Amino acid sequence: MRTPAGFECRYFYANYYRGRNQQECRLVARDPASARWTPGLCRDCPVPKLLRANACQHLVLDARVVKTWGGLGRKVAVSASCTKTLADVPNPQAGCGRCHESLGKLRLPENP
């Protein structure tokens, strides 16, 4: 679904049916320790960019709203892990580096 910032994100949900004005980030909602989410956080959220850069089926994202600048600002902080290697992923845009090692070893059959 398209976020208020204009990006496509699978975790954003909005319901405007019959005058409702319900918006939520289902990724942030999974973390009970997160601060309150607002639609304005979508503008600088790294999740849509990560989803475009890495479509690995084993990548699992976790997000929470954290305070910045001594509590004056807020942003979405993202962490990632891999379900195949069961390891934390320090750079979610690149992935864990081990899920797709076998793709480089594949060879096309030679034509006789």
Overview of this protein structure:
By secondary structure, the chain is of the alpha+beta class. It has one domain (12-96). It has helices spanning 26-29, 47-53, 101-105, and strands at 12-15, 22-25, 59-68, 73-82, 87-89. The strands form two sheets. The chain has a three-stranded antiparallel beta sheet. A hairpin with a 4-residue loop joins strand 3 and strand 4. The chain is globular and about 60 Å long. The chain starts with 11 loop residues before the first strand and ends in a 7-residue tail after the last helix. The mean pLDDT is 88.
Secondary structure category = alpha+beta
Rounded to an integer, what's the Rg over CA atoms? 18 Å
Order of helices and strands: EEHHEEEH
Helix percent band: 10-25%
Could you say which overall geometry the principal axes of the C-alpha atoms support? globular
Amount of beta strand: 25-35%
Overall number of structural domains: 1
DSSP E strands, number: 5
The average pLDDT score comes to: 88
Largest sheet: 3 strands, antiparallel
Report how far apart the termini are. Answer: 49 Å
How large is the count of helical segments? 3
> Can you tell me the residue ranges where pLDDT is under 50 for at least 5 consecutive residues?
none
Give the strand line-up of the largest sheet: 3-4-5
